[in-house]
């Protein structure tokens, strides 16, 4: 099964976001009660904890939502192949058997790479249901010419990428040019064709929670399948506060249009306890359906090693060294 076909099968149960006409009155009305939002996320760890078998189950679910990522200047085809092998078997078989999941197929949500390695990843994941996601549009800064961005998207789709993670032009948000952001996002969506598009807002760069909320809404109006916090290259990446603001925009968009849009926090999520916080927020704000990989992804590289380490502790009562849980 090709990666694009695998992606389409995975998303078949959820109608794709077809977008909505740009309503500037709706965008202008968006407000964020910052103090209330900060109180909400501050109380989450104390109110919501899971232990033992329940925690192991939540962590295994998190594994299936990871976009296993390598976006380094020294990436090689061999590193990408090893990452793909890990995506196909992210948790050691002995741990799965001890947890009662020996007969289950567990894999990550996707592999995320630069365009240069899309073909390598597609070949390595052939005959699996794991899509390849390509970062695009001049990632991470997004400052290349618009026509170059569109050609990069089209090239990755042609190579077999089933998902495209685009970066928006931050200037459009910082200057309040919502029409320009809407048109840009529409063009990106069109260039993706059947591949699903994740809109990276670079929340650490666009400064305010109101900007985060408005940019989220405009990208969804323009047809984004997912909204994503960060490239992972900004000084501030995913946070629970940004997540709360974006999730509430997803809920408002669904209430108004009927379309469900996915969410992807990325950057700085390296500990198992942190991903649990994001899962709790997803469930409490949007519901159980948003804990599945067709509506929730986590962009991460080292997170998987800590999850596997925590699962080993649950099974054996002992913590192992991180180097026993290498990505490849």
From TrEMBL:
Presence of keyword Coiled coil: no
InterPro entries, per the entry: Aldolase_TIM, DeoC, DeoC/FbaB/LacD_aldolase
UniProt name for this protein: Deoxyribose-phosphate aldolase
E.C. no: 4.1.2.4
Keywords: Lyase, Schiff base
Pathway in which the depicted protein is active: Carbohydrate degradation; 2-deoxy-D-ribose 1-phosphate degradation; D-glyceraldehyde 3-phosphate and acetaldehyde from 2-deoxy-alpha-D-ribose 1-phosphate: step 2/2
Reactions it catalyzes: 2-deoxy-D-ribose 5-phosphate = D-glyceraldehyde 3-phosphate + acetaldehyde
Family: Belongs to the DeoC/FbaB aldolase family. DeoC type 2 subfamily.
Highest taxon in the source lineage: Bacteria
GO molecular function terms attached to this record: deoxyribose-phosphate aldolase activity
